[in-house]
């Protein structure tokens, strides 16, 4: 009989800091060496990680390496320490099972319920979220058998990240490359902090815009804003770990890619408009978190504008309005049930408070939800923290207290998930 969820050991240490128990499965692919970096990132975040390699994985990275990096034994054999019943006990007490890399063979065995080594046995007994980071050649990833196995795993609640596209083994290139270790670790930490891997957005397509547009003045200068893209990237990360197919429209962002998301890079408001309208055609939800320039120079100089020596003259730059992407998106939404979310970074002034401006913008834009946040020195732009009100077209208002942008991202997605039709 399996222990009740409440009987599992408390992952919190005496200091009150959450120390999660992670099982890092490693299957037999050339990308196994990258799992060492994922392991390092998780342990440096203070978590307890035990590595469970397959026999094939040990041909790429030896057990001594895993034991040294994790501080725990690493074995593929169910008969090692058999008195502790590791093939059952490990999965029962873990907070997350993360497989890096997940080969086509490993996912096939997991999908069919095989239990012929310690890793697959653990996957069968795991009562916690399970995440796979696939890596294989393009032909193997696109094979109908792999496609079916991935769909099976996702239907059972597992998070299967989309592999990246790029250089594979040898001279081959294509989709199937393991996502970057930092991005995999970020996805794992997002699941751990949320406390569940329930993929309530499985089968959904979510488009997220992030960052700030730049409108060129000349080849050197531009009109821009202080948006770092952190909130949009947190939204994309959260949507991936909740099972969605995610398209991330990234405007001038210098952040690690989100594992499992399709990245579309844009620069100007016009480029963002074009990409948003194109990518949202089949989207179930569009989250417009990017900070779009309201104005751009009417004319762009082909050469750098020079200062004139001996004079205080300054150039006069005539501006014109950019397109209102959010308002156009709501007017042209591809179908009535599509959920559209806007963001409004506001400051109060003599004309009204932040929420006053937010409610007026919700009415004028026509979106379903508007996330209103007051920007300042310690929140909003260029910060890892945020607080906001989520205003609904149905009259609802939800206050999200000051905290990590990842927390706000999940509250936004909770609202989206609740509004999506089956």
TrEMBL record:
Domain Flavoprotein: 21-191
Transmembrane domains' residue ranges: none
Top-level taxonomic group: Bacteria
Region Phosphopantothenate--cysteine ligase: start-end pairs: 206-422
SUPFAM superfamilies documented for this protein: CoaB-like, Homo-oligomeric flavin-containing Cys decarboxylases, HFCD
Keyword Lyase appears in the UniProt entry: yes
Location of the region described as Phosphopantothenoylcysteine decarboxylase in the Swiss-Prot/TrEMBL record: 1-205
Reactions catalysed: (R)-4'-phosphopantothenate + L-cysteine + CTP = N-[(R)-4-phosphopantothenoyl]-L-cysteine + CMP + diphosphate + H(+); N-[(R)-4-phosphopantothenoyl]-L-cysteine + H(+) = (R)-4'-phosphopantetheine + CO2
Cofactor: Mg(2+); FMN
Domain (DNA/pantothenate metabolism flavoprotein C-terminal) ranges: 201-418
Pfam family, one: DFP
Family statement drawn from the similarity comment of this UniProt entry: In the N-terminal section; belongs to the HFCD (homo-oligomeric flavin containing Cys decarboxylase) superfamily.
UniProt name for this protein: Coenzyme A biosynthesis bifunctional protein CoaBC
């Amino acid at each position: 009989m399996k222990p009740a969820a409440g009987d599992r050991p408390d992952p919190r240490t005496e200091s009150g800091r959450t120390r999660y128990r992670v099982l890092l499965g490693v299957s037999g692919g050339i990308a196994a060496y990258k799992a060492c970096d994922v392991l390092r990132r998780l342990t440096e975040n203070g978590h307890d990680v035990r590595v469970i390699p397959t026999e094939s994985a040990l041909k790429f990275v030896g057990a001594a390496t895993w034991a040294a990096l994790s501080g725990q034994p690493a074995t593929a054999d169910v008969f090692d320490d058999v008195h502790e019943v590791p093939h059952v006990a490990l999965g029962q007490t873990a907070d997350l099972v993360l497989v890096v890399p997940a080969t086509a063979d490993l996912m096939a065995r997991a999908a069919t319920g095989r239990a012929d080594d310690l890793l697959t046995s653990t996957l069968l007994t795991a009562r916690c979220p399970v995440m796979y980071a696939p890596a294989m050649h393009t032909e193997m990833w696109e094979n109908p058998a792999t496609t079916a196995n991935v769909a099976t795993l996702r239907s059972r609640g597992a998070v299967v990240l989309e592999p990246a596209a790029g250089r594979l083994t040898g001279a081959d290139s294509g989709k199937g490359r393991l996502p970057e270790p930092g991005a995999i670790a970020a996805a794992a930490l997002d699941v751990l902090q949320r406390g569940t891997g329930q993929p309530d957005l499985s089968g959904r397509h979510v488009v997220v815009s992030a960052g700030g547009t730049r409108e060129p003045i000349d080849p050197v200068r531009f009109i821009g804003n202080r948006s770092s893209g952190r909130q949009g990237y947190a939204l994309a990360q959260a949507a991936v770990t909740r099972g969605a197919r995610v398209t991330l429209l990234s405007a001038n962002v210098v952040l690690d890619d989100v594992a499992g998301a399709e990245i579309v890079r844009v620069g100007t408001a016009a480029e963002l408009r074009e990409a948003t309208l194109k990518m949202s055609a089949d989207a179930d939800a569009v989250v417009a978190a990017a900070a779009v320039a309201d104005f751009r120079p009417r004319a762009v100089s082909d050469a750098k504008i020079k200062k004139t020596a001996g004079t205080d003259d300054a150039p006069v730059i005539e501006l014109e309005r950019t397109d209102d992407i959010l308002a156009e998106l709501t007017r042209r939404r591809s179908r009535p049930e599509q959920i559209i979310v806007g963001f409004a970074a506001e400051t109060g002034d003599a004309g009204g408070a932040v929420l006053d401006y937010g409610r007026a913008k919700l009415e004028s834009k026509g979106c379903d939800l508007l996330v209103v946040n007051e920007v300042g020195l310690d929140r909003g732009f260029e910060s890892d923290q945020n607080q906001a009100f989520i205003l609904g077209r149905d009259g609802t208002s939800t206050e999200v207290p000051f905290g990590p942008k990842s927390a706000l991202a999940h509250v936004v997605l909770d609202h989206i998930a609740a509004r999506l039709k089956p």
